[in-house]
Design goal:
Alpha-Beta Plaits, 5-stranded mixed beta sheet, 67% helix, Rev_trsase/Diguanyl_cyclase, GGDEF_dom, diguanylate cyclase, membrane, alpha+beta
Length: 401
Amino acid sequence: MSGQRTVRMQGTDGIDAITRRVDRQIEVSERAVNRQKLSLVLEIEKKAQIANAVCWLIMVFAVFQLGDPMAFAIPLASRFVASPLTHISFKRARAILADGGKGSQAIRPVALALIVGGASWASMLPPLLANSLNEPAAMLIFGSLVAGITIIVSMLAPVPVLALTYSAGFQFTALALLLLEQNDGRDWGALLAISTLFLVFLAYAFAATNRQEETARTLVTNRALTRQLEDSLREVEQLAYRDHLTGLMNRRSFFRFAETLDPAQTRHVLTIDLDHFKAINDTFGHAAGDLVLERVGAALREVVSGLEGNEHCAARTGGEEFVMIVAIDDMERAIGVAEKIRFAIGGLSAGMPYAELKTSASIGVGEWAAGDDLDEVLARADRATYRAKAGGRNRVERSAA
């Protein structure tokens, strides 16, 4: 009865425990969410390369429609350099994350490139403001400038430190360049308007990051859930083929293992029954009984690991009942293995916190010859086990031929 109780616990309660654990809400760390947001930003940058190139070509075309295209030579050159520099830094950051590096390590190269990128966009302002914005070409440049800034700010907003870094590069460079202008054409009103517009874009982008936040959190949660489900599935598989308490094969996996063996070879089957196990449960409690079963499982695993070859196995088939297949064709050697097991089980009580607890086992050894049915071999070994119990227990008996 105690053995049946343990089997039920390992089969039903074990799976129920796994199900409850999977059903619990997944806890997601903010660090993982922030890392995912950074990863999303870095991936979006790959798709923005074409837009950056088109924007630069439009501005080049528009510049040559103005009266002094050379005034834009340095700004356009800076944009030409800043774009691939930014792309390289983003690529490096993606590699850092892929290698398991910290998010802060990935941000550093990107932040430096964004300062340069923001400065390159701001360098377009002085020559642009020197022209009338009523001119179509100037309006086209201004529109490209606004579109480019909008795209970049929207892309960076989920990672505020990057958006603010880019903003600082743009704003401080724009202010510095206009302060350096020595002519009366400085248009502080235009600068204020553009700066205000930039800040509006930035504020709007920050406000619109909720969707990216939810996307990042969902991705992180799904990954955590997937990992937990994979772990739980492995545990369920373990419960399906392994005895939860002893770690040995269960009855199902024992017979599946037996089916893989070469039927032309002679082996021996050992049936092992713990002596007075019900009395152990009744006297010392089920915790003591479970401890005995765990120790027996460990002892059987140790014996199996000490045998040559890999066609041996040990299984728990019932409450206090165990069975072994040993790939040994000689009965006397098989009995020697059984005696080793009997001796090991007899010594288990010495290391337990129960002074009066004693452990022993009755073991039957049956020959599994070529062509024999395993069920019949098990029945013969069981009868030998019964004789061992009837003969005083703590004995090894061989089955009748």
